[in-house]
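Severity: low
Component: inverse-folding endpoint
Summary: output formatting inconsistent between runs
Steps to reproduce: submit the following structure tokens with default settings.
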């Protein structure tokens, strides 16, 4: 199910059931893409799949409060210290969501070959009903969602604009997977920041 008409409004919930996916555009009107690319301490993680060590098809960084370590895909991340721009963005997102975040996972998609496969953010540190606020800058990429068990629900597809905010909450991570699709089209870089609250 394509949702092209989403791109200039505030949608309270784009999911038909089992969770909440809120979309807000415009949320941040300044394009911070280049500043984030140059300021963030990016790294290339590797994971083991089918007995082989494979580089993740994107660059990542983990920032947070002291002690806010986080493990996903077998990768343990110890937090880097917040820097001024990231704190500024965090404050804006916290005001919108009405809660405080203590960590953020940043993903840098350098071109169309960088992507993220189907997954849900359901790690133990996040709790059972996590609120995850996803802020994007740069090129539009296909963000897709599919229900884990109800095959009668079509895959939901949207292309969030630069400066948009997606908020995933309630039981969404229990019931839905999401991904950033690969594309062969020439496309510029994108940085995505997912603010989270993990148990310390």
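Observed output (run 2 of 3):
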């Amino acid at each position: 199910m394509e949702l092209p008409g989403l791109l200039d409004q505030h949608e309270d919930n784009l999911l038909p059931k089992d969770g909440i996916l809120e979309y807000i555009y415009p949320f941040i009107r300044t394009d911070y893409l280049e500043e984030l690319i140059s300021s963030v301490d990016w790294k290339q993680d590797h994971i083991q799949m089918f007995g082989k060590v494979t580089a993740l098809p994107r660059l990542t960084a983990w920032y947070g409060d002291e002690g806010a370590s986080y493990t996903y895909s077998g990768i343990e991340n110890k937090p880097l210290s917040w820097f001024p721009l990231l704190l500024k963005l965090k404050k804006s997102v916290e005001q919108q969501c009405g809660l405080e975040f203590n960590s953020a996972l940043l993903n840098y998609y350098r071109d169309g070959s960088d992507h993220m496969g189907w997954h849900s953010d359901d790690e133990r540190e996040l709790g059972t009903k996590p609120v995850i606020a996803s802020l994007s800058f740069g090129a539009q990429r296909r963000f897709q969602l599919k229900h884990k068990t109800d095959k009668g629900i079509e895959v939901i597809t949207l292309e969030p604009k630069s400066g948009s905010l997606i908020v995933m909450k309630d039981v969404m991570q229990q019931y839905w997977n999401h991904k950033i699709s690969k594309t062969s089209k020439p496309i510029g870089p994108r940085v995505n920041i997912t603010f989270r609250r993990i148990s310390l």
